[in-house]
């Protein structure tokens, strides 16, 4: 595959060259609008589909000098097919960052790359880098196991292990060899409280986790993830298999977890993104199209395509 | 087609070909499915059909009776093969023959010419010896003679006999048999000339038995015992057969107060003489060397005071003596060879079996001429037939009010002839079925003739009729389980770990080809494996027994040591080299383990097994420490692992919390080394203690080395069951939902932790069912065990000994079993037991698998 150059650098990366887009924003002369180079192509999506050059629009609001996670010019191929093109973005410390975009745009792929779950697929090839607290995730000497312990992940479908609720929550401690019953119980309670599930299950910690409802199972998965006290929490469409009430609970939970954990969430639900997240990244066909604070993306998107998508006029 | 239940007509019609193929395929599938079930059911029904007669009750039916007129002290009654004639033998030697068809006497003669002073009749009443007042003896045999007289020489009315009708002819009867010929049946007596003994005193008692080279006699005359061996000599000038006697006067000092013994008997081939008095005193004289014969044992065969022996008889083979007394008790005695016999000849005469309880006095005993049945006639006119091995009562008859004088069973065991005190001769048709194979004989310990105690033995046939069939199934079932156990010990872990490796660790690209290759192992014919086992592996293994044993220790140690050394690598390197480099290092550990085993083998053999493991195993040299060490070492290692993980682990973790990675790795190696030393030390200590306390492992789990043994079978049959366990286990592991795997890996678990903590518990029932199916395969496996075990039906846990499985037993013996014989049906029962075992195992596996599937759906 031909490597194309990109001209922008994400915020927070020292660069002598200031991207054009940034310049226009920095000037603050024009209202949010379409950068010239993209506008002339007659539709951004068409440009992407035709694999033409385009630039990510990054809002000023999406700058942070000390992000917990930084994605740099990340590209990924499944065999010969490129799934991610030059994605560069950040996840600010203690904030919720949402990834939105139509199906197949690479949101989940990007998310899985953060804790190197894509290593498990033989045909995957990557270039670019990701930095966790300023250190490369993809360096050859990185211990993947250690990395995953620092990046918790919650999947689309609730996937509790077929064991008791207690054992599910303390799984991350078990695999570290912790045997002290007091420590385990303490972490279990803390994590379940953190996931807002304590009151519902405190009397049946020894019953099977599979007996819980879908929403409870998903919160149990979150409890399992936060029991490891990760730096980053990755949520891959955590509510797509849940009913609205359970979804509401999860969103409340995300709100509560914010601050303690830095969260990267993939969602199809625009309301959820607007309600629960601080930053939003809009992706399309493996490219990051627009990235900014949630407020900016939903209220003042610079691209018409973003606006169409977030307001449901997409397509 | 007409629209149905929709109310409206559909614009498009379904073509006839579609409906036809639908119906046709449905019918075909139904027939196929039901056919399969029916086929399996039919096999079961067929097996049952053959087996059921084993357990059906014997039948007996009154057939004919006749009056013998008045007899003077009859000694025996005889019946011919076709049950047409009955003969009575009186004490004075008168032989009368009766014809059942007419009920009349058709002949009477006195072949002995003069009245004998003592007579000895063989148990089946065929050969006999008689002694006379003048000190001479005569030996001979009764025989019913059949021949087909040429019809042309017969009178016309005889030629016109119809099928089945019996007509008197000369001193016998004529009968037209099925193929149209006329058969003559009459009695014949072969008799030697009177043989003079050195002493001419009256012969008071006589006993005889047949040897291959002639008759052996023992006579009581003039208050002493004389042992006589006869030899037939043919004068080759005249063609005359002359009997030579060689007499030996036995050095037997009779007790004058006891007088003449009431019975004199020769046991078996004439190696013991039994003298029996009426009150039950039995003296056993060892006459294997007649020159130095002596009384070796005195027993009381009638324990009750004041009661007397009233009837006695040998069973076929003349080794078991059946004694009936006036209390009605019937016991059978035979000689056994216990370790501490306390008799000069090392054998003891024991009352092994007892038939029925007391009752009316026993008046007659008659064994079956072809099997181990014994018929008992009593004072009160009842007759019982017992199976002498199992003590089972087969038949009970109320003959009449008169006492039974004599009885006999027909040569084909299909009739019973009884002579009552009223001189009536009666005949019963009978079918004893398969008395030697009832449930007790098959599954419970049985006291066989010559055995020290009741035992489970399988020894189904031998060359002679006198042989006692031993149909204990337990040695075979035991062998089957032993084969299964040892092959599972070897095969199941290997197959399960291979499945775990392919499903959890192997890259997806390699998974499919590797799985197919292992499955291809299943297509290797088991006869090839058996051949390899018997002719290649067994001889080689025999030469490297110590090295093989040592390799069980060195191989895992080499791998573990490799793993600990790997930890010493700097982290950057160990992570970077986690691919093929690590695999290569693991590959290196294997030859290191094997080579060190080969190198250490002779050393260990010298140290633990006194220099020669085969002699050591045989118990000829050395002590038990080495064996205990080998057995206890894995146990100690396991205990150390548990101790290290549970007790030492947390402590070490706390102490080493701030240590560097390298330091931790060094600590781990140190712990490993200490663990090896501790395991060996503890094992050695416990071994010495056990050995000191007198326990020796030899004789139980290890013992005499046989070239074709359970270890070899375990190894090769393990190889045969690996593919099936592997395939099913791999399927079970792969069908664990991917999201569980991802959840665990995503939480930072290593692939091994994921496999052990999440995948294996989830797939547990699938793995269980895989192992059960493997068990089913191992239970039914025939060819390998047939070729590589030596097929000795012994019950022995010794891993170095052979065994015989149900399936191999069927394969070995069925071609030689006579159709519908007891043996044949017993083999079918073995098949049924095997069928039941595999059926149970497979059903269990299927039930577990269904439960597993139900749970898997939930995930």
Can you describe what's shown?
The complex is a heterodimer of chains A (315) and B (859). In chain A, 34% of the residues lie in helices and 21% in strands. Chain A has 315 residues and is an alpha/beta fold. Chain A has a single domain, classed as P-loop containing nucleotide triphosphate hydrolases (Rossmann fold), CATH 3.40.50.300. In chain A, strand 5 and strand 6 form a beta hairpin. The longest helix of chain A is centred in the middle third of the chain and has 14 residues, at 181-194. The relative contact order of chain A is 0.17. Chain B has 859 residues and is an alpha+beta fold. Among the domains of chain B are: 474-546 and 704-857, Orthogonal Bundle (MetI-like fold); 624-640 and 665-695. Helix content of chain B is 41%, strand content 24%. In chain B, helix 4 packs across helix 13 (710-734). The longest helix of chain B is centred in the last third of the chain and has 37 residues, at 822-858. Chain B is elongated and about 115 Å long. The mean pLDDT of chain B is 88. At the A-B interface, helix 5, helix 7 and helix 10 of A face helix 8, helix 11, helix 14 and helix 15 of B.
Keywords:
heterodimer, A: 315 residues, alpha/beta, Rossmann fold, seven-stranded mixed sheet, four-stranded antiparallel sheet, 11 strands, disordered N terminus, B: 859 residues, alpha+beta, MetI-like fold, seven-stranded antiparallel sheet
The stretches of 5 or more residues of chain A where confidence is low (pLDDT under 50) are 1-41
Q: What is the overall number of helices of chain A? A: 14
Radius of gyration of chain A using CA atoms only: 20 Å
The named CATH superfamily of the domain at 474-546 and 704-857 in chain B: MetI-like
């Amino acid at each position: 595959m031909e490597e194309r150059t990109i001209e922008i650098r994400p915020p927070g990366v020292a660069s002598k060259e200031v991207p054009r887009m940034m310049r226009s924003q920095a000037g603050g002369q024009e209202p949010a609008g379409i950068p010239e180079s993209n506008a002339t192509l007659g539709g951004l999506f068409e440009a992407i589909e035709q694999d033409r050059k385009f630039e990510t629009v990054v809002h000023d609001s999406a700058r942070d000098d000390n992000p917990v996670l930084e994605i740099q010019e990340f590209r990924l191929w499944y065999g010969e097919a490129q799934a991610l093109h030059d994605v560069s973005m950040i996840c600010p410390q203690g904030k919720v960052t949402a990834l939105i975009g139509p199906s197949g745009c690479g949101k989940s792929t990007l998310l899985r790359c953060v804790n190197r779950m894509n290593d498990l697929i033989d045909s995957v090839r990557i270039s670019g880098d990701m930095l966790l607290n300023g250190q490369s995730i993809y360096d050859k000497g990185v211990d993947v196991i250690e990395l995953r312990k620092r990046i918790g992940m919650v999947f689309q479908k609730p996937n509790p292990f077929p064991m008791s609720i207690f054992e599910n929550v303390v799984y991350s401690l078990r695999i570290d060899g912790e045997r002290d019953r007091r420590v385990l119980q303490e972490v279990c309670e803390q994590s379940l409280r953190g996931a807002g599930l304590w009151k519902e299950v405190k009397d049946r910690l020894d019953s099977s986790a599979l007996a819980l409802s879908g929403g409870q199972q998903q919160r149990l998965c979150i409890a399992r993830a936060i029991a490891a006290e990760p730096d980053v929490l990755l949520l891959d469409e955590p509510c797509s298999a849940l009913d609205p009430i359970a979804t509401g609970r999860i969103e409340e939970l995300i709100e509560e977890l914010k601050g303690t954990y830095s969260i990267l969430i993939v969602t199809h639900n625009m309301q959820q993104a607007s309600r629960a997240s601080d930053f939003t990244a809009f992706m399309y066909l493996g490219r990051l199209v627009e990235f900014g604070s949630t407020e900016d993306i939903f209220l003042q998107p610079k691209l018409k395509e973003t606006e169409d998508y977030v307001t449901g006029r997409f397509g | 087609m007409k629209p149905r239940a929709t109310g409206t007509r559909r614009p498009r019609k379904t073509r006839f070909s579609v409906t036809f193929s639908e119906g046709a395929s449905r019918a075909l599938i139904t027939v196929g499915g039901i056919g399969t079930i029916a086929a399996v059911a039919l096999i079961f029904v067929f097996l049952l059909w053959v087996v059921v007669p084993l357990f059906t009750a014997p039948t007996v039916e009154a057939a004919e009776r006749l009056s013998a007129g008045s007899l003077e002290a009859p000694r025996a009654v005889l019946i011919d093969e076709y049950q047409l004639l009955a003969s009575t033998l009186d004490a004075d030697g008168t032989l009368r023959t009766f014809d059942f068809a007419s009920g009349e006497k058709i002949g009477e003669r006195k072949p002995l010419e003069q009245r004998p002073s003592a007579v000895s009749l063989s148990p089946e009443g065929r050969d006999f010896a008689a002694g006379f007042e003048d000190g001479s003896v005569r030996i001979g045999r009764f025989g019913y003679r059949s021949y087909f007289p040429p019809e042309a020489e017969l009178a016309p009315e005889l030629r016109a006999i119809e099928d089945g009708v019996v007509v008197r002819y000369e001193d016998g009867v004529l009968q037209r048999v099925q193929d149209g010929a006329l058969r003559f049946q009459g009695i014949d007596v072969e008799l030697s000339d009177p043989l003079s003994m050195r002493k001419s005193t009256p012969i008071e008692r006589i006993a005889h038995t047949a040897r291959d080279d002639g008759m052996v006699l023992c006579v009581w005359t003039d208050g002493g015992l004389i042992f006589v061996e006869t030899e037939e000599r043919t004068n080759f000038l005249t063609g005359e057969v002359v009997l030579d006697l060689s007499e030996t006067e036995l050095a037997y000092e009779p007790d004058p107060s006891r007088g003449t013994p009431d019975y004199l008997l020769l046991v078996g081939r004439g190696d013991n003489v039994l003298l029996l008095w009426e009150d039950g005193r039995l003296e056993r004289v060892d006459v294997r060397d007649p020159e130095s014969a002596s009384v070796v044992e005195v027993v009381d065969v009638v324990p009750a005071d004041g009661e007397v022996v009233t009837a006695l008889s040998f069973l076929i083979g003349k080794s078991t003596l059946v004694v009936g007394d006036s209390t009605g008790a019937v016991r059978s005695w035979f000689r056994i060879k216990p370790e501490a016999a306390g008799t000069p000849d090392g054998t003891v005469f024991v009352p092994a079996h007892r038939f029925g309880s007391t009752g009316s006095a026993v008046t007659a005993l008659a064994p079956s001429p072809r099997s181990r049945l014994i018929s008992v006639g009593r004072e009160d006119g009842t007759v019982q037939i017992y199976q002498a091995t199992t003590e089972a009562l087969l038949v009970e008859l109320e003959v009449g009010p008169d006492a039974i004088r004599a009885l006999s069973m027909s040569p084909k065991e299909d009739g019973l002839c009884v002579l009552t005190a009223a001189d009536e001769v009666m005949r019963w048709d009978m079918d004893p079925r398969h008395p030697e194979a009832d449930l007790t004989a098959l599954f419970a310990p049985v006291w066989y003739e010559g055995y020290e105690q009741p035992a489970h033995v399988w020894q189904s046939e031998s060359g002679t009729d006198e042989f006692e069939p031993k149909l204990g199934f337990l040695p075979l079932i035991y062998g089957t389980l032993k084969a299964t156990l040892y092959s599972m010990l070897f095969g199941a872990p290997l197959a399960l770990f291979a499945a775990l490796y392919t499903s959890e660790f192997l890259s997806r690209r390699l998974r499919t080809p590797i799985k197919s290759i292992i499955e291809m192992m299943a297509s290797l014919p088991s006869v090839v494996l058996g051949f390899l086992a018997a002719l290649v592996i067994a001889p080689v293994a025999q030469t490297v027994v110590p090295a093989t044993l040592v390799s069980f220790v060195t191989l895992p140690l080499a791998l573990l040591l490799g793993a600990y050394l790997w930890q010493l690598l700097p982290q950057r390197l160990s992570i970077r080299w986690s691919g093929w480099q690590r695999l290569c290092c693991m590959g290196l550990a294997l030859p290191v383990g094997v080579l060190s085993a080969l190198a250490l083998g002779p050393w260990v053999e010298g140290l633990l097994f006194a220099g020669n493991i085969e002699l050591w195993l045989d118990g000829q040299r050395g002590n038990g420490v080495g064996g205990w060490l080998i057995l206890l070492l894995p146990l100690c290692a396991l205990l150390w692992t548990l101790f290290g993980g549970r007790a030492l682990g947390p402590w070490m973790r706390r102490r080493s919390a701030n240590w560097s990675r390298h330091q931790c790795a060094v600590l781990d190696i140190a712990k490993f080394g200490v663990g090896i030393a501790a395991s060996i030390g503890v094992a050695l200590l416990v071994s010495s203690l056990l050995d000191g306390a007198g326990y020796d492992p030899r004789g139980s789990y290890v013992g005499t080395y046989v070239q074709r043994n359970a270890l070899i079978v375990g190894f090769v049959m393990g190889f045969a069951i690996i593919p099936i366990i592997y395939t099913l286990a791999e399927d079970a592991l792969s069908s664990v939902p991917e999201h569980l795997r991802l959840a665990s890996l995503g939480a930072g678990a290593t692939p091994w932790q994921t496999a052990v903590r999440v995948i294996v518990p989830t797939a547990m029932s699938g793995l269980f069912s895989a192992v059960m199916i493997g068990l089913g395969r191992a239970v039914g496996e025939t060819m390998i065990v047939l070729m590589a075990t030596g097929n000795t039906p012994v019950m022995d846990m010794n891993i170095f000994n052979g065994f015989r499985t149900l399936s191999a037993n069927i394969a070995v013996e069925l071609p030689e079993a006579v159709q519908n014989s007891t043996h044949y049906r017993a083999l079918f029962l073995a098949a049924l037991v095997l069928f039941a075992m595999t059926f149970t195992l497979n059903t269990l596996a299927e039930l577990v698998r269904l439960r597993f599937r139900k749970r898997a759906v939930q995930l």
